[in-house]
Write a structure and sequence with these properties.
alpha+beta; Helix Hairpins; D-amino Acid Aminotransferase, Chain A, domain 1; 2 domains; five-stranded mixed beta sheet; four-stranded antiparallel beta sheet; 11 helices; 11 strands; globular; binds nicotinamide-adenine-dinucleotide; DNA ligase
């Protein structure tokens, strides 16, 4: 990298952007990835590195400046007044230590983190008016998503009506658990249909159906973890999740409020070993500054909030082997 000239960096970045856009379109829009996530991540991180080294080569349409893929589906469009962002990621405890050091430098003291499992699904936005579900939408490109209200009405754990007449917007992950995924792929295989690459793509392909009755047959679930602009008495992420749970949303009960990085590392170790025994897929651990005022203070870039980070698990051995076999036959 140190030996690269500006022109070489420009050329390499342009070719990486082209390739990454193609993969992102297949992944986000067609729900049919062409490569494994770690391959995408390696190329994405190489582009990030080049853009960090040569900031003058960053273009506004670079994939590092945009969320998700292009919206070119037939769903009605939904404008997200509060953008649905992506998330920064780290792949080692050293990088996580750097994240913590940056937060401490920015806010001037140590902070508590709410640490949650990173559910391997797709983001879902739910809007309630006077306690009734009015609209559900996907993240799309972060600013404009797709209206999937009819589909969301067929997901059993999404409350159609809240116990209080609240007008609120909440966000979470729509996912397919491992058993539903195995059954769906078996059925598709028996019918000679193409199978889904992983539960994330199965969930996305099942939610983003123009015929909502298909969604009904697919056994999707949700974990809700974000309250957009919560009332003033909710001051932390941990509190928000507790209240969302009381309101009847399906929340993930493994999340914990932790006082320091050593405890975060212990949580990561715990779920790295428990991961395979969970009923649903996770691809990492999300570390969020717990205090909502501090979250606002830290803010976000055009693509990622500065107050949270995903610690990504290394690719699973088995997946890598399957991938290589597919490519060699
Ligand atoms: P991301 O999936 O890495 O992280 C952000 C998302 O995490 C959020 O939008 C949210 O939906 C989700 N999430 C799950 N649990 C959460 C929790 N507890 N709290 C908050 N958010 C939670 O980011 P992204 O921008 O959606 O996509 C990047 C990922 O997609 C990378 O892992 C990349 O490998 C993969 N991808 C793969 C391909 C491919 O071709 N294989 C192409 C594009 C992207």
């Amino acid at each position: 990298m140190a030996d690269l000239t500006l022109n070489e960096a420009k050329k390499e970045a342009a070719s990486l952007r082209k390739q990454l856009k193609e993969w992102a379109q297949a992944y986000y829009v067609k729900d049919a990835p062409q490569v494994e996530d770690y391959v995408y991540d390696q190329n994405y991180n190489r582009l990030l590195e080049l853009e960090q080294q040569f900031p003058q080569i960053v273009t506004p349409d670079s994939i590092t400046q945009q969320v998700g893929g292009e919206i070119d589906s037939e769903f009605t469009k939904v404008v997200h007044e509060v953008p649905m962002l992506s998330m920064g990621d780290v792949f080692s405890k050293e990088e996580l230590t750097e994240f913590d050091a940056r937060i401490q430098r920015q806010v001037g003291h140590s902070v508590a983190y709410n640490v949650e499992l990173k559910i391997d699904g797709l983001s879902l936005n739910l809007e309630y008016v006077d306690g009734e579900l009015k609209r559900a939408s996907t993240r799309g490109n972060g600013l404009v998503g797709e209206d999937v209200t009819a589909n969301a009405r067929y997901i059993a754990d999404i409350p159609q009506k809240l116990p209080e007449k609240l007008t609120i917007e909440v966000r979470g992950e729509c996912y397919m658990d491992k058993a539903a995924f195995a059954q769906l792929n078996q059925e598709r295989d028996e019918k000679g249909e193409t199978t889904f690459a992983n539960p994330r793509n199965a969930a996305a392909g099942s939610l983003r159906q123009l015929d909502a009755k298909v969604t009904k047959q697919r056994n999707l679930s949700t974990f809700i973890y974000t309250w957009v602009n919560p009332p003033a008495n909710i001051t932390s992420q941990h509190q928000a999740i507790t209240k969302l749970d009381e309101l009847g949303f399906h929340t993930n009960q493994t999340g914990r409020k932790l006082a320091n990085l050593d405890q975060v590392f212990a949580f990561i170790d715990e779920y790295t070993s428990k991961r395979d025994n969970l009923l649903y897929g996770i691809d990492g651990i999300v570390i969020k500054v717990d205090d909502l005022n501090l979250q606002n203070e830290l803010g976000a870039t055009v693509k990622i909030p500065r107050w949270e980070i995903a610690y990504k698990f290394p690719p699973e051995e088995q997946e890598t082997v399957v991938h290589e076999i597919k490519w060699t036959v």
